[in-house]
Specification:
Length: 143
């Protein structure tokens, strides 16, 4: 069980790095993002605080999600120990793919409204599936 959770934390930190890359892309492509944030935030909260909170808080948040995913992977191994789709557990991999498909549906809706945000969410879904559906089981069984 501990190996699965540790594998999940590693995968979560990797996904946190991918998310940070996306956030840095957003920061550098939207030159007026700081001004727009300053207009929307309550008085006294600087946009720098929000940006630094994202940059500092995102990797640990993904690590916690990874730990949960590792625990769920362990439960999925106990319930249904069959391999499939290139993974050591078919049920877990299908659950991750279905979760990513739901996120992709939201992304398709956002593409209709805000093309850049939807494409960014779509491009984040593919690493999510690769990291959690296939890399997590691979790391968990790596000895």
């Amino acid at each position: 069980m501990l190996t699965d959770i540790l594998a999940g934390v590693i995968c979560g930190l990797l996904m946190g790095t991918v998310s940070l890359t996306a956030i840095v892309y957003i920061f550098f492509t939207n030159r007026d993002l700081y001004d727009r944030l300053a207009k929307r935030l309550p008085q006294g909260i600087p946009p720098t605080f929000i940006m630094l909170s994202l940059v500092i808080g995102l990797p640990p948040t993904w690590a916690v999600w990874g730990a949960v995913a590792g625990a769920l992977y362990n439960v999925a191994l106990d319930l249904s120990p069959g391999a499939g789709l290139g993974s050591s557990n078919l049920i877990f991999t299908l659950a991750i793919i279905c979760l990513a498909a739901l996120v992709m549906l939201v992304a398709l809706f956002l593409i209709l409204r805000h093309k850049k945000w939807g494409l960014l969410l779509l491009s984040m879904s593919l690493p999510f599936v690769g990291i959690f559906a296939w890399l997590l089981p691979l790391i968990a069984h790596w000895r």
